Amino acid sequence: MSEETKNLSCTDCGLINCYRREKSFPQFCLTTNTDHEMIEEVNRLYRNDELVSKLSQAAAEIEGTYYGKITRVEEIIFFAKKIGAKKIGIATCIGLMSEAKTFAKILHAKGLESYSVICKVGSTDKTEVGVDEKLKIQKGCHESLCNPVLQAKLLNEEKTDLNVIVGLCVGHDSLFIKYSEAPVTTLITKDRVLGHNPAAALYTSGFYYKRLLEENDME
After folding, report:
1. Which residue numbers in the chain have pLDDT < 50?
2. Residue 65 domain-assigned (yes or no)
3. Is residue 57 part of a domain?
4. Residue 86 covered by a domain
5. How far is it, in rounded angstroms, from Cα 99 to Cα 120?
6. CA 141 distance to own-chain centroid
7. Where are the alpha helices (DSSP H) in 49-193?
8. Using CA atoms, how far apart are residues 137 and 205, in angstroms rounded to an integer?
9. How many domains, the chain?
10. SS3 of residue 76 by DSSP
11. Taken in order 41, 46, 50, 51, is the CA torsion positive or negative?
């Protein structure tokens, strides 16, 4: 591999031959440049690891059967049932409680139990964990921090089989996933500006959001 291509990755590829193998792989392709032993090691996980196999098989079956036919809410329900999940944890943002409540009703209607934990659980003021008062949204009053670690631990105590993120902030979702013992999927990715459709910033980056392509540090 040349010096010019060794740092290239999948977003630099215009062929995507890894999907159907109808074209040819570029010189820098991760498929052809990844050590074969690593690929085979991962493949063994899909074949032999009980949890990996169960989740991947269920996801593939839903994709192959319902691709483009059902909503993400329905996908989550089908996925939960395919993997034998009966109790669904809901880690919700305080700003999406209405959506979380509706989702819980839907789960119950489909024969699934749910247990939800809001992001402000514990009601710990941000300053108690070292956040500066000036970084609060509303200064000079109690303002609880988002507490994804406690959300995860409470759902762990409930022994949920599958946890669903409903609008946790960037970074808070990362912490929740880190501490969740159950597998995690996302129903809603929060974007207050774009009505919880963050992909819209990408679709409009050539016009309304062209500032996203301007080279600066966004400070």
Report:
1. none
2. yes
3. yes
4. no
5. 16
6. 32
7. 50-66, 72-82, 97-109, 148-157, 172-179
8. 28
9. 1
10. helix
11. positive
**Which residue range forms the structural domain that includes residue 33?**
27-69
* Structure confidence at residue 37 (pLDDT): 97
Could you tell me the pTM of the whole model? 0.93
Distance separating alpha carbons of residues 198 and 175, to the nearest angstrom:
20
> Which residues, including other chains, have CB under 8 Å from residue 44's CB and lie 6 or more apart?
none
Residue 34 lies in a domain: yes
Rounded distance, CA 7 to CA 20, Å? 24
Residues 6 or more apart in contact with residue 131 via CB below 8 angstroms: 145
| C-alpha–C-alpha distance, residues 83 and 34, integer Å | 31
Q: Who contacts 124 (Cβ-Cβ below 8 Å, separation ≥6)?
A: 144, 145, 147
pLDDT in tens, 150-192: 999 999 999 999 999 999 999 999 999 999 999 999 999 999 9
- Per-residue tokens: 27: 């010189």
Structure tokens at 30: 């991760």
